[in-house]
Design goal:
Length: 172
C-alpha cells in the first residue's frame, strides 16, 4: 500500500488533490486551534469559579482583614489570593469614589451657596441703589419745587419721582 502517484499530465486532478490536502491540513489546524482555545476557556472557567468561591467566602476575607503580609496568605491558593486582593482593590476604589463624590457634592453645595449669596447681595445692592436713586430724585424734585417762585410752581404729578422723570419748572 503505497502512495498514489498522480501522473503529471493531469493538472486538473493534481489541483483537486492539492486543494483537498490543503483543506484537510487546514481543518486539522483549525481543529487543533479549537482544542487549544477550548482548553484555555476551560482553564479560565475553572479560575473564575475559584475566584468566585474565594470571594464568596466572607470568613476568609474577614479573618485576613487588611493584613497583606505573606503569612496571612500562607496556605491559600493563588486564585484565593487574587480574589482577596481584587476585593481589597475594589473596596479601596469604592472608598475613593465615595470620597470624590462627597467632595464634589460639597464643592457644588459651596459654589451654590456662594452663588446664592452673591446673587442675594447683588439683588440687595440693586434694591438699595434703586431706593437711593428714588429718594434722591424725590428730594431733588421737592428742592426744585421749594426754590421755584410760587406763580411758576406746577403741581407735581404722581409717579414722576418714581419714574425718574423731570417736570418742567423753569426758574432762574
Amino acid at each position: 500500500m503505497g502512495k498514489k502517484i498522480i501522473p503529471p499530465d493531469d493538472p486538473a486532478r493534481l489541483a483537486r488533490v492539492m486543494d483537498e490536502k490543503r483543506r484537510l491540513i487546514g481543518g486539522q489546524a483549525r481543529s487543533r486551534a479549537a482544542r487549544v482555545l477550548e482548553a484555555d476557556a476551560q482553564r479560565m472557567r475553572e479560575e473564575r469559579e475559584e475566584l468566585l468561591a474565594a470571594s464568596q467566602c466572607p470568613l476568609l476575607t474577614e479573618e485576613l482583614g487588611q493584613d497583606s503580609s505573606p503569612q496571612a496568605f500562607k496556605g491559600l491558593s493563588e486564585a484565593q489570593r487574587a480574589a482577596i486582593q481584587a476585593e481589597r482593590e475594589a473596596q479601596a476604589t469604592e472608598r475613593r469614589c465615595r470620597a470624590l463624590q462627597s467632595a464634589a457634592e460639597k464643592g457644588i453645595e459651596e459654589r451654590a451657596l456662594l452663588a446664592a449669596d452673591s446673587e442675594a447681595a447683588l439683588a440687595a445692592h440693586k434694591v438699595d441703589q434703586e431706593e437711593r436713586e428714588k429718594r434722591w430724585m424725590l428730594a431733588d424734585c421737592w428742592r426744585r419745587q421749594a426754590s421755584a417762585p410760587l406763580e411758576n410752581q406746577e403741581p407735581m404729578p404722581l409717579g414722576y419721582a418714581s419714574r425718574g422723570l423731570q417736570f418742567g419748572t423753569s426758574h432762574r
